[in-house]
From TrEMBL:
Pfam families (alphabetical): GutM
Protein name (record): Glucitol operon activator protein (GutM)
InterPro entries, A to Z: Glucitol_operon_activator (IPR009693)
Source lineage: Bacteria, Bacillati, Actinomycetota, Actinomycetes, Geodermatophilales
Region ranges (Disordered): 123-148
Length: 148
C-alpha cells in the first residue's frame, strides 16, 4: 500500500504535464495558422534552457518585409504565444543580420535571426520563388519550418 502513496501523485503529475503540453502545442499551432496567410513562414529557436530560457519565434514574410511575428518563451508548459510587434515591418535582411532590435530579448533576437535565415535560404534556393502569402520555408536541421 505504501507504493500507491508514491505512485498516484507521480501518475497524476505526468497526466497534468501531458495535458498542459497539449494545451501549449494547440495554442502554438493556432497562432501559426493565423500567421501563414501573411506570407512565407519559418520558426527559429534561440536562448538556452537554463540560462535565460528558450524562445521560439515564428515569422511571416512577404515582399522582403516581416508581415507578422509571435514568440513563445519561458521555462514551463504555462508559456503561451505572444505577439512580437517589434519585428513587423522590418526588412528580412535586417532581421537576419547581427544588429540588435529594440523590443526583443536576446533569446528572441537569436530565434528571429534563425527564422529569417531559414526564410532567406528557402526563398533563394527555390527557382522563381517569391514570398507570397501561404508559402512555407523549407525545413532545416538548424530550426523548424512551419508545415504546409
Amino acid at each position: 500500500m505504501n507504493w500507491a502513496i508514491l505512485l498516484v501523485p507521480v501518475v497524476l503529475g505526468t497526466v497534468l504535464q501531458l495535458w498542459l503540453t497539449a494545451k501549449q502545442t494547440t495554442a502554438w499551432a493556432q497562432e501559426l495558422r493565423r500567421l501563414r496567410p501573411l506570407g512565407a513562414t519559418a520558426v527559429g529557436r534561440g536562448g538556452r534552457r537554463y540560462r535565460g530560457g528558450l524562445a521560439f519565434v515564428a515569422v511571416a514574410v512577404a515582399d522582403g518585409r516581416v508581415t507578422g511575428a509571435f514568440t513563445l518563451r519561458g521555462f514551463t508548459t504555462f508559456a503561451r504565444p505572444a505577439p512580437l510587434p517589434a519585428l513587423v515591418g522590418v526588412r528580412l535582411a535586417v532581421v537576419a543580420g547581427d544588429r540588435p532590435l529594440e523590443g526583443l530579448t536576446q533569446p528572441e533576437r537569436d530565434a528571429a535571426r534563425q527564422a529569417a535565415g531559414l526564410l532567406r535560404t528557402a526563398l533563394a534556393t527555390r527557382p522563381g520563388a517569391t514570398s507570397t502569402p501561404g508559402t512555407t520555408a523549407a525545413p532545416s536541421t538548424a530550426g523548424a519550418a512551419s508545415p504546409a
